[in-house]
Amino acid sequence: MLASMVGAACLAAAGAQAQQPAPLRIGVLTDMSSLYADVTGAGSVSAVAMAIEDFKAKDATGALKTRPIEVVSADHQNKPDVASAIAREWIDRGGVDVIVDVPNSAVALAVGNVVRDNNKVMLASGPSSSDLTGKSCSPNTIHWTYDTYSLATGTATAVVESGGKTWFTLTADYAFGHAMEQDIKNVVTKAGGQILGGVRTPLNTQDFASFLLQAQGSGAEVIGLINAGGDTINSIKQAVEFGITAGDQRLVATVLYINDVHALGLPVVQGLQFTEPFYWDLNEGTRAWSEKFAERNATRHPSSLQAGAYASVTHYLRAADAIGDSKDGKAVVDKMKEMPTDDPLFGKGTIRVDGRKLHDMYLFEVKKPEESKYPWDYYHMRKVIPAAQVWRPLAEGGCSLVKS
Predict the structure, then answer these.
(1) Are the CB atoms for 72 and 28 separated by under 8 Å?
(2) Packing angle between helix 148-161 and helix 175-190, nearest 10 degrees?
(3) Cα–Cα 20 to 30 A to 301, which of 45, 119, 224, 331?
(4) What is the pLDDT of residue 300?
(5) pLDDT tens-digit map of 44-83
(6) How far apart are CA 350 and CA 395, in angstroms?
(7) HEC string of 106-139?
(8) Which first-to-last residue range defines the signal peptide (predicted)?
(9) Can you tell me the distance from the alpha carbon of 24 to that of 349, in angstroms, rounded to the nearest whole number?
(10) Is the distance from CB of 336 to CB of 315 less than 8 angstroms?
(11) Max CA separation in the chain (angstroms)
């Protein structure tokens, strides 16, 4: 009798265990080892973990509809084929519902296809190509943080209006650079400026000497650096070493992260203007979150991309919770578009039908060393650029999801 009771109990326990729902799995596909590692990488994994913890803190059950939430991460090595293979493995065998971060636009465009074909979700918080909400838009992708159009509009417009009429561009030779180069040309020309020439540089370039000499020889008033991460750091450092910034020419970084400023130091980059969607010291909400982030990341403060990983996952979890399911990726994305966004890092906003997350952007200027009063106190905020002004008009993107 005892044996049969024990057996029944074991069967009941096994049945209960079998009925436990599979966890919601978030895959952070990022750069752990190359030029974007500082601005995404382990910091993005940390930001996603913070989003899950904050979501659970507001959920009485401590989980998403009784489901646990798990995170996996991998290094895509800035190779679209490697990234696509990881995404397929995660989805086919790992039960991953959503892929987040994906810095490097070529990687994001490739992974976006895998995600769409399998009806999962991609939260593109790391890449910047405006094609992600244009000709390559997808019903399964949300493009958070920024894009090439908004960065070009904010920075190039301000520079041309302040007298920088003639430009020479140094462009990273891949999807992000190509998209940004075109956006810069359009904005500069529209604002009354002129592109005198340009050169394309390999990704992860260590020696910019020949490219910078071409830019210097062009006589352009502005040398536009259309690159990011380690490439931005190396090109600025070498431009200063060559004395380019000591003359009449000025450098303009189309993409600049606080990690780049920290690595270069204020004496090197003081006075540089650029556009960003986030700064840790903007307000009480950004400061409180950034202090928690810094505690987890050896006092390093968050980049805008790491902030974007947190905010996009936060909104995704709310949407998946609202519909009670994460398996139908398109349905979750539709809910994300339907719900207004609200988080302490980007504030209130919306998501358009093309997947573009809308929020204000900011024109910043790097402080002089004597103006910095405490660690990571690096920026003056020169201008708020309203969302209505900085993002590409919906009708101009060429997205197939936009109905005429």
Answers:
(1) yes
(2) 40
(3) 224
(4) 94
(5) 999 999 999 999 866 665 555 557 899 999 999 999 999 9
(6) 17
(7) HHHHHHHHHHHHCCCEEEECCCCCHHHHCCCCCC
(8) 1-18
(9) 25
(10) yes
(11) 95
Compute the distance between CA of residue 226 and CA of residue 201 in angstroms, rounded to an integer: 10
Number of Cβ within 10 Å of residue 217's Cβ equals 10
Residue 7 has pLDDT above 80, yes or no: no
Count CA within 13 A, CB hemisphere, residue 87. 31
Encoded tokens for 292: 């928690």
Q: Which amino acid is at 321?
A: D
**Is the CATH number 3.40.50.2300 carried by domain 23-146+283-354?**
yes
Q: Percent of the chain scored above 90 by pLDDT?
A: 83
Instruction: Give dist(CA 100, CA 135) in Å, integer.
Output: 21
CA distance 256 to 248: 22
User: How far apart, in whole angstroms, are the C-alpha atoms of residue 105 and residue 234?
Assistant: 20
Residues 6 or more apart in contact with residue 167 via CB below 8 angstroms: 184, 188, 193, 194, 195, 196, 220, 221, 222, 223, 224
CB atoms within 10 A of CB 262: 17
Residues with Cβ < 8 Å from 382, sequence gap 6 or more?
158, 273, 362, 363, 364, 365
Q: Where are the domains of the chain?
A: 23-146+283-354, 149-276+361-385
Backbone angles phi, psi at 384, to 5 degrees: -90, 125
C-alpha to C-alpha distance for 125 and 113, rounded to whole angstroms: 16
